[in-house]
Amino acid sequence: MTDGWDWRQPGASGVPAGQPGPGHPPGGSPTTSPYGGQPAASPWWSDALADPWRDPNAPTAVVIPAAPVPGTEPEPVTDPDAPGRPKLHQMLLIPLITALLAGTLGGALGYAFAVRGGAAGTVLGAAPGPVPTLAQRAPESLAGVAERVLPSVVTVRVAGVGGTSEGSGFIASADGHVITNDHVVAGGTGKASVVFNDGSTASATVVGQDEESDIAVIKVTRSGLRPVEFGDSDALAVGDPVLAIGSPLSLANTVTAGIVSALDRTMQAGEPGGPTRYYAAIQTDAAVNHGNSGGPLVDAAGRVIGVNSTIKSLVAEGQEAGNIGLAFAIPINQAKRITQEIIGTGKARRTVIGAQVGGPGSNTNGSGVRLAAVEPSGPADGAGLRAGDVILRLNGRPMTEPTDLIALVRKYAPGSVVTVEYRRGSSRQNTSVTLAADAK
Which residue has the higher pLDDT, 12 or 184? Predict the structure, then answer.
């Protein structure tokens, strides 16, 4: 196939004779130029022979390759370097890597802006300071107080007919005397064991107990004991911070915090068939539960100011009681005095005023306690009190129930002098009474 006429020169040129030569159209004379007598320029195809890419001998037909014979197709060849279709694991790996990179970049940017503030960020809080160790905590802090007192607190276990009774106690002397509650050791065989705050144990014996004050003393034989420091329960004020330490519900070394909720809260307690206990208690809202009995109530300086003894609860009779923020402790001044008497003589003296309260005609509508009888030559008789007198106040504490007079009198040691405000008829009078020990 050519880009002009397929013509041949005569002879060597291969143009057939009688055919027009270059510049001569078929069957005519040479063409003249319209601009003069010169021969006209050759047509556009006349320079085909000068085309260096033209093959004058190329055939004029278009050659179409024949269709391959079936079964003779060449085996397909695959280029190993040619890109192929991605596999499933490759398709999953790419977005996973992308997400990880995006998350890392986002986290780094978030940290930079949150911690360093960025260009206009806000940093909340001051830079954290060093965390104090236990040894670095202030001695007057709650942690400092607990650290000092805990080595002196023990768990008391007493085996009895009905099983093992468990309560708390604290070391009162370096030679091994431990103060606890009478109701913790009551019903036991006289043998007990104590568990110290480090988990070690030691056997103990009951030295003595006072049912009415609910104080008992046991003794362990062990060296290196650390006795508690005693405070002054008469110097307390409502609102003073306190800690209760013991083994509530068998959870040894438990520390709870609260305040002094009330002072001289008169209590009448005791189990059915057992002795009736009277005491003017320290009321606290520190959490106290079964097992805290006999443990110390300490002030902010770590000094023992009471012996945890009873709690108030809303449960029905016979059900297990729990803390509701109403716990009561025996004042340590009273407990310490009874402990010293038990160690010295094996028993404690009971303080009396020498008069009887209650009975017919004792109702005063909450405005005092009427004396039903006065013992001859007793403390009340010596102070000029008579049967029928109404005790209004004792050392400034108002009397509303017979329990109040009994509990407050037993708070003081025999020989203590108390002031009594009373009403006789329509007149009010004051007197001083020197309390005495019961003849028993």
Answer: 184
C-alpha–C-alpha distance, residues 414 and 353, integer Å: 9
Q: What is the 8-class DSSP label of residue 23?
A: T
Q: What is the DSSP string of 94-145?
A: HHHHHHHHHHHHHHHHHHHHHHH-TTT----SPPP-PPPPGGGS-TTSHHHH
Would you say how long the chain is, in residues? 440
Catalytic residue, from 293, 309, 389, 404: name it: 293
pLDDT of residue 80: 59
pLDDT class for 69, splitting at 50, 70, 90? low
293 is catalytic: yes
Of the chain, the end-to-end C-alpha distance in Å amounts to 150
Asked about 183 being catalytic, the answer comes back as: yes
214 is catalytic: yes
pTM score of the predicted model:
0.69
Domains (ranges, CATH) in the chain? Answer: 142-220 (2.40.10.10), 231-313+321-345 (2.40.10.10), 351-437 (2.30.42.10)
Task: Find the mean pLDDT for residues 68-78.
Answer: 59
